[in-house]
């Protein structure tokens, strides 16, 4: 659902990537290995733009033949679901503050993709919005 495919572009001494699902995403590195690591951070940065602009985060499309897939952490996936649920319900941060009876800074951190929130805090916020977090493990 949120395993974003990226297209790799090769140049003389570097590689860079784009993502058709997230046009705001860009990453560059010297090697493919470094690029894959940088790509996860680049996607997190792109997701922050969606929050800043109060837009829903798009689901990932199926990868094309030559694309690589960037897997995001369970925490980031949970935050995407929380954010998209808020957007679907036309909720603002203040609405979530009231719903959770929490401090504004707590809610800011829950929807900040760069903040290392505790997964159970995001899970509790989703539960308050009528969603249950479910995690599965699959082969790498």
TrEMBL record:
Protein name per its UniProtKB record: Type II toxin-antitoxin system HicB family antitoxin
UniProt organism field: Kushneria phosphatilytica
């Amino acid at each position: 659902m949120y395993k974003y495919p990226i297209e790799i572009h090769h140049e003389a001494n570097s590689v860079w990537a784009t993502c058709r699902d997230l046009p705001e995403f860009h990453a560059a590195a010297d090697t493919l290995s470094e690029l894959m690591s940088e790509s996860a951070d680049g996607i997190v940065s792109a997701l922050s733009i969606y929050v800043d602009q109060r837009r829903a985060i798009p689901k990932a499309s199926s990868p094309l033949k030559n694309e690589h897939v960037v897997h995001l952490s369970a925490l980031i996936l949970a935050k995407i679901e929380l954010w998209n649920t808020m957007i679907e319900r036309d909720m603002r941060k203040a609405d979530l503050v009231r719903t959770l009876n929490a401090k504004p800074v707590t809610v800011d951190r829950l929807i900040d993709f760069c903040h290392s929130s505790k997964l159970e805090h995001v899970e509790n916020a989703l539960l308050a919005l009528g969603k249950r977090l479910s995690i599965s493990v699959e082969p790498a």
